[in-house]
Amino acid sequence: MEAQTLGAKVGPVRDLIVAAIYDRTQQIVDQVVKRRGPVHDLDRRIDDFVTAKLFGYPLMLALLGVIFWLTISGANYPSQLLAKLLFGFQAHLTAFCQWLHFPAWLHGVLVLGMYRCLAWVVSVMLPPMAIFFPLFTFLEDLGYLPRVAFNLDRLFKRAGAHGKQVLTMCMGFGCNAVGVTACRIIESPRERLLAIITNNFVPCNGRFPLLITMAMVLLGALAGNTNPFLASLLVAGAVVLGIAVTLLVSWLLSRTLLKGVPSTFTLELPPYRWPKIGSLLIRAVMDRTLFVLMRAVTVAAPAGALIWLMANLKAGGLSIIGYLAGWLQGFGRLIGLDGYIVLAFLLGLPANELVIPILIMSYLAEGVMLELDSLEALRALLAANGWTWLTALNMILFSLLHFPCGTTLLTVRKETQSTKWTVLAAFIPTGVAVLVCFFLTQLVRLSGLVRLIRF
After folding, report:
1. Is 68:128 a contact under the CB 8 Å cutoff?
2. Residues 296/350, Cβ–Cβ less than 8 Å
3. pLDDT tens digits for 168-226?
4. Which of 1, 132, 158, 240 has its CA 20 to 30 A from that of 291?
């Protein structure tokens, strides 16, 4: 009993010691340093606002919303331009294969499979990351991110996690692989594992296109309105849900698989400084954007070949994708999806950007990944394949909570040097996603709301 009481008091005692040290330091400074005129501590005045309970959280959400808006809206045109360039080059590769008299299957594997998959991943991933990471690094160098950690430290301590997990979670919004790498800043092995396993619950740039598309589809079904602003609010709500799930799963793991007392740390808030743009861009582009892109390309290339083979190898008039989707249909229906959706998520393991193109390809029974011209065309295709508003909602939830992409799992394996924790990093989020979708689906079906609202 005495040991437990002492352990419970370690945190507060340490805080009191640190506070006493800083108070004594301030007393010495006041005795020795002489200042002319009144002291205007601008940093402290800003912190009184930024770290206040009343203004701190709304400011964090507002800044996060602005960064997402700049990333999503700013990446639209560059993504379209890059996709046009890369997919336009596909015709030259096809002509080159014909000139060399490649057999049709080899052209399909190399060009329609590997190259087309790479073009999709690069055109969707590169522009958002090239915008998000510089913006995020700007806030980091400015000195704002330690204030975010200060604001959320108490919540993560209650969840049995480390306050620095806030910073790794923020990195995960750009890319979960980078967020996992950032967990190195957490000294405690137990709390580092907590941060690694739960980092996937914050959506990365690769999942935002799917989340936004499904949000607009869902709003079109519920309200007959596909307003981008309302869709952005719905996605923001999904982000807040992801943060809540991060805290809940951290709390559960800290009391089961990763038991332990959360370590304390003293966070000294750095002064605000205007970042050096040159070094900022080098770190954001070279250390983060290109690092993630190269890992994604490494995983996506063989995946593209595999997806093309599965879509084009047929038996009895049905492709391998058709057979696998049929086997997964029962499980898909149980969680409010269908076999094709579940298979699209599984085949989208290399990169989340591939889920919608694979789904469209599967529904249309085509041999290559496709993208439709408009949101209305997509809604019509989904409705023709039995979708309801509940299907769209479950797509949002499953995309938010399901297993990490292949690049992130490779990073988890490298950081933990453990196959066990890599497997758990995939299965724990997937289990959460399945449970959430299952219970929501059963509740909605029992209430009869699916039939009341037409898709």
Report:
1. no
2. yes
3. 888 888 789 889 998 998 888 999 999 999 999 998 877 888 888 888 888 876 666 66
4. 240
